[in-house]
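Weekly structure sync, notes
Attendees: PL (lead), two postdocs, one rotation student
Agenda item 3: pending single-chain targets
PL asked that the sequence for the first pending target be pasted directly into the notes so everyone works from the same version. It is reproduced below exactly as submitted, 291 residues in total.
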Amino acid sequence: MSDSLQIGRWTVGEGSPVYVIGEIGLNHNGDVEIAKRLIDVAAVAGVQAVKFQKRTPEISTPQHMRDVPRETPWGTMTYLEYRYRVEFDREQYAEIGAYADSRGLDWYASPWDVPSVDFLEDLDVVAHKVASASVTDEELLQRLAETGKPVILSTGMSTIEQIDRAVEILGTDGLLMLHATSTYPLPAEEANLLMIETLKQRYGVPVGYSGHEPGLQISVAAVAMGAVAVERHITLDRAMWGSDHAASLEPHGLMTLVRDIRIVGEARGDGVKRIFPGELAPLSKLRRVGA
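Predicted structure, written out during the meeting:
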């Protein structure tokens, strides 16, 4: 059993500050300047990493969705055309990656197909993220295992047997699991935070939480219950056009969340009973009978 792993410049696990990931995803809407502004938001809030999504649309777009019309800020287009419209190319990713690094943040992405893994490897990302939708994509998982990079595995929309198989392929060395429920937005009755401990006991790896709830309470509670990492979608404005903005945190919300995570993470302690320095004066004043 491993209590921690190294992701980029950060140690993630028991005894380390909670690892907070700002999920930019596609909330940049295909605009490098919006991506940079979201990186700024993440840096100011105090997160350690930002995450994007990388697809090869011709491969990763389901056949039945390709020709579905979609209204976009750029006019009506097919879903496949939209997917191409919001993808960054290598030069754009190199630019935003360098910008993230300049702000003290690690960056990586969720690859949705094997060529996207190769694309990200060419950019030498520090880790890879498996989206919940990709838990059963064994070809993708095998390619990720071959990179030797740390892998962050979300577990939403998956059975325990499907997660078992994913872990069998990925291995547990360098694995960070994220408990998740892929309901957008997430209602409290589907959060099932006790799964954090279940995953820890079953797989013996560090476990965090990926949240899609509208508020902050469930993410903070996840830390109190042992999550060593928290991932949340972030946006400049929840009213922006796009599928994930409404379930994302705006800048003030992210700052509040990170503040509360840091307080609760420190308050968890180590579970060893001791008399703390702050108790000595009340002890001397109030205890009448000694041991």
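Discussion points:
- The mean pLDDT is 96.
- Residues 144 and 270 are 34 Å apart (CA to CA).
Action: rotation student to compare against the earlier draft before next sync.
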